[in-house]
Amino acid sequence: MNDDSASPQVNFEMLISVFIQLRDWIDAKKVAYEAEIAPRQKQLKVLNELLLKKLNATGQNTARTDAGTAYKKIWHSATVADKELFMRHVIGAEDWDLIDWRANKTAVVNCVKENKEPPPGINYSTGYDVGVRRPGKDD
């Protein structure tokens, strides 16, 4: 990629203006797309409910036809209702498979600030990106 920073035609005002225009265009397309597919998503939800009712009413797990096959899929949800109770159970029973281990990014950043290095076993990196906002009362 060429470094156009010395080009008089390429300046911050032009780059920021184009950036905002492009971001707005993308956002508008996303909103329009979501609005366009929303009725079809509602129809799919209704059809899904009808198919599940029909499978349940007929005692079937699968219904194969020339048009395709409908089948029941089981789904699961597990959310923490009482954090302290759950933590006591996991620690007390040493049932570590009940939890996922991942680094808390905020805590790791604070650790690096304080200790100049990440905790053992953590891959840590940092970088810069560019944020662009519209002109306003803060500018």
Word description of this protein:
- This protein has 139 residues and is mostly helical.
- The protein has two domains: 1-74; 76-123, no CATH class.
- The protein is built from three helices and two strands.
- The longest helix is centred in the N-terminal third of the chain and has 47 residues, at 12-58.
Layout of helices and strands, plus pairs?
Layout: H1 12-58, E1 62-65, E2 68-71, H2 83-93, H3 105-115
Keywords for this entry:
139 residues; mainly alpha; 2 domains; two-stranded antiparallel sheet; 50% helix; 6% strand
Mean pLDDT: 93
Strand order of the largest sheet: 1-2
Query: Beta-strand level of the residues, as a percent range?
Result: 5-15%
Helix proportion range = 40-55%
Number of strands: 2
TL;DR?
The chain has 139 residues and is mainly alpha-helical. It has helices spanning 12-58, 83-93, 105-115, and strands at residues 62-65, 68-71. The chain folds into two domains: 1-74; 76-123, no CATH class.
